[in-house]
Design brief:
Keywords: Endonuclease, Hydrolase, Nuclease. One of its GO terms (molecular function) is endonuclease activity. This is MvaI/BcnI restriction endonuclease family protein. By secondary structure, this protein is α+β, with helices and mostly antiparallel strands. The protein has a single domain, classed as MvaI/BcnI restriction endonuclease, recognition domain (Alpha-Beta Plaits, 2-Layer Sandwich), CATH 3.30.70.3570. 22% of the residues lie in helices and 35% in strands. The chain contains five helices and 14 strands. Strands 3, 4, 5, 11, 12 and 13 form a six-stranded antiparallel beta sheet that branches. A hairpin with a 7-residue loop joins strand 4 and strand 5. The longest helix has 13 residues. The chain is globular, with a radius of gyration of 19 Å. The two termini are 19 Å apart.
């Protein structure tokens, strides 16, 4: 396991390697390549990649994209199935199975599947509610304390690495040139970022062939160049 000093040393060694061919084509290539260089096993488990040092995240300097902070399904229990049955629509690629895919923010209602109706999120008291302007109403929400715990479990600290890149697909290469440790999560900041639409929520619900609800993971996401807004402290590593 790395200490902060040994991680800084390893990141400097990686920086001195210059451009490194991707270990996987596509959007996740940068993360896979960096994990391999740091000797980290790929995982989808809630918890930090680098132990006490934090979760590892990386981004391409010439691209602005959304990254996932954490995933958390809304309450009450089994509400995803109710949301799917009430607001879902047929996925033409999957033999009439229903899906509900929607990116939601706190600034205004979106629209779902070409309809005039959609969702937004709003903090009321100790809950973040999924609001709807559909004729039919479903109560779905996240407890603020649950969101705080989910964030702090996944991102008590964050090791954030930036890379210059060139090429595309299988021929993409990365030069890792900048890295920080971010810490000091502020839920007050998190709530403000929700209200300003900077943190967005991706709802991804589908169906198995037998009709059971399939939760692909409700993701809380932010632009990679704004993730530092969630944290109070920053230490430069590279």
């Amino acid at each position: 396991m790395y200490t902060l000093e040994t991680l800084k040393q390893r990141l400097k060694e990686i920086e001195q390697m210059g451009y490194i061919p991707t270990h996987r084509s596509g959007p996740t290539g940068i993360g896979k390549t960096l994990e391999d260089l740091l000797g980290i096993n790929e995982n989808n488990i809630a918890g930090a990649d680098l132990g006490d040092l934090g979760e590892l995240k990386s981004c391409r300097n010439n691209q602005t994209s959304m990254i996932t902070l954490f995933t958390k399904s809304p309450k009450p229990p089994r509400v995803n199935g109710i949301l799917l049955n009430t607001y879902g629509y047929v996925d033409p690629r999957r033999d009439s199975r229903k899906i509900l895919h929607s990116t939601v923010s706190g600034t205004s209602y979106n629209t779902v599947n070409g309809t005039p109706y959609g969702f937004k999120v709003e903090v009321v008291g100790d809950r973040l509610y999924l609001k709807s302007n559909f004729p039919q109403q479903v109560t779905a929400y996240w407890e603020k304390e649950d969101l705080k715990k989910a964030f702090e479990k996944k991102l008590p600290k964050l090791i954030f690495v930036k890379a210059n890149c060139k090429g595309t697909g299988r021929n993409e290469e990365f030069h890792f040139v900048e890295a920080y440790q971010l810490s000091g999560f502020s839920f007050k900041n998190f709530e403000e970022l929700i209200n300003r639409g900077i943190i967005k929520i991706d709802i991804r619900i589908g169906q198995y062939p037998d009709g059971r609800t399939h939760d692909h993971g409700t993701a809380f996401r932010i632009m990679n160049n704004q993730i530092h807004l969630c944290f109070a402290h920053r230490i430069k590593l590279l």
